[in-house]
C-alpha cells in the first residue's frame, strides 16, 4: 500500500466518512432550517452548474486554471462530484501517487479531494457532466424524500456537530462558491440577477454565521468593538458583530454607533471569505469608517475556509 493509502485510511476515511452520519444526542443545539428554503437553493446551484458546464468545451475543462492552486476547471467539477458521492456513502478512492506531497495539498481534506479528482482524471467533459448529473439526481431524490426528523438530526458537518439541514446549507455555499470559481476562470460571470437568487442568499447566510469568529479570532477586534460590514451590489446586506466578552452576530447595536464600518461589494466579500482573490468583474473598492486599523485587519483575515 502506498503512503497515500495510509493517509486515506487514517485520518481521512475515519473523519470524513462520518460527515452526514447521525451522532449521539448532545446538549449542543443544532441549527434548524427549513427544507423548503435550503433544498431549492441547493438544487438551483446544481441546475446552474449543469447549464454552465454544458457551455464549456473539452479544452476549457482540461486546460483552464482556476484561482484554486493546482486545480483546473475539471478538478473543481470532480471535487463537487466526489463530495456528493461521499455523502452517498461511497468510499474515498485510492490514488496513483502520494497526493499529500503535492504543493497545494496541506491537510487530510486536501488529500481526500485529490483522491476523488484523480479518480476522474480520465473522463471526457461529456462523461464528467454525465457523472455530475447522475450523482446530483440521486442526491435530489434522497434529500427530497428525507423526513423533517432526519433533516434536523444532529450530524457531523464541516462546521462541527449540527443538523443535516445546516450541512446542506454548507453544501449550497460550497457548490455556489465553486460555480463562481468556474465562471471566473472561463469568463462567464454571474449576472446581477443571478447573484440575487436563493442560492446566493443562502451562501451569504452561511458566511454570516462565521463572522463572529472571523471578526474576533481572526481579525483581532478588541473587546467592546461593534463592527458593521456593509455589503453593496446585488448581494447587499448589513452584518453586525458585537464583541463583548465573546463575539456574536447581532441584529443591531442597541442604539450605539459602530466602532468600525467596512463597506464593500457583497460578491467580492464572498471571494475573500473563501480565500479567493478579488475578482475583476465587480468593484474592488473597500471603504472604512471609524477604527480603520481594525477594519483592515478584519478584511486581511476574512478567509476562513479550509
Automatic annotation (TrEMBL):
Pfam families xrefs: MDMPI_C, MDMPI_N
Residue intervals of the MDMPI C-terminal domain: 202-296
InterPro entries: DinB/YfiT-like (IPR034660), Maleyloyr_isom (IPR017517), MDMPI_C-term_domain (IPR010872), MDMPI_metal-binding (IPR024344)
Mycothiol-dependent maleylpyruvate isomerase metal-binding domain: residues covered: 45-183
GO MF: metal ion binding
Descriptive protein name: Maleylpyruvate isomerase family mycothiol-dependent enzyme
Organism: Mycolicibacterium phocaicum
